[in-house]
Each structure stands twice: as C-alpha cells, then as structure tokens.
Amino acid sequence: MGIVISRDLKKYSIINGLILGLVLLAFNIISFYLITTIVKSPLGVIGVPYIFSIILPIPCAIIMVYKLRTEMKWDWNFRVATSGIFIMFLVAYFIIFVGRDQLFARLIEPQMNTKIENVLLEATPVALKKSGANAQQIAQKQKEIRSQFETQDKITIGQEIESQLISIIFIFVIALIFGALFKRPARGYEAINVNSVQ
Questions:
Q1: Which of 45, 92, 124, 126 minimizes the number of CB atoms within 10 Å of its CB?
Q2: Number of domains in the chain
Q3: Domain range for residue 129?
Q4: What is the model's pTM?
C-alpha cells in the first residue's frame, strides 16, 4: 500500500519549502558577495561560506520543521513527518538550484565560479604559509583548486543528472533523521486503546 499524503501536508510542506528555499538562497548570495567583495582575510574566506552554508541553515531548517509540525497539529507521526519534511526540503533544494545555479549564476553573475576560484587561489597561499606549508605544497593545492573548478565547468548532462539524484537521496536520508527526531508521540487516547487491546 502506498503512502497517502494529505492535501494539508502537501500545502504546508510546499509553502514552508518555498520560504526555506528563499532564505537559503539569500544566504548563498550574501555569502558570495561577502567573500568576493568585502572579506579579504583567508580565515574569512573559509569561515563565511561555512557559516552561511552550514551554521545558519541548520537552525532555519529546524524552525521550519517545527512550524510545519505545528500547522499539522497532531497529524504528525513518523510517516507524516518524514513525508512532509522531505517535500519541504526538496522544494527548498529546487528553489536554490533554480535561483542560484540557473538564474543568479547565468544571468546576474555569469562569472560566479571564476570569481570564487580567484578568491580561493588568493587566500589559499596566505593560509598555507601561516600553517607552515612550503612552496611546493602551496602550488599543489592551487593546482587542485583549479582542477576542481575545471571539472565543474566541464560537467556533462549525465553527470548533472547523477549529481541531482544523489542530492535527492541525501535529502531523503536527512528527512528520515528529522522525521525520527521531530515526530509527535502517540496521542493519549491512541495509547489507551493500544493498552486496552493488550
């Protein structure tokens, strides 16, 4: 028997996914402009993306999960929670993919990857010198950075599809974890009925 997703769950999950996606999209854009125009220190270049891609999104996701759970009231067992969170995260991911990778990177900042690459190439030697790396190690690291960005520029349709599928699977796994963490306990009368049957 397949999973039946209620109309309310779809509606609230999509709405909250749109909100979450727009917030995370804003984080991505802010992070980009900070490291390419304002932040100059190597520590800042490393720290800003970490803050905007990991530190801030986690509490935002938790807030939106609680918001969705509140809107669904008591209809929030593990199955419902996982389904709703998966839809919400998937919608947010779609917003980021379209907003950042397709619109922002193509229409507003077509040189986005090049600018990020240049920032990393400038910050890496300074950071490595402070850690005691020699010239050969620095050159090797810069070569790796260039190689990573060249690979991104030459990605094929098949690789893009594979990447998206992996991302969707990852989102589902995260939804399972969040569903287990934030599911509601059984309602009182349900627990009483189970005990009476036993």
A1: 126
A2: 1
A3: 7-183
A4: 0.84
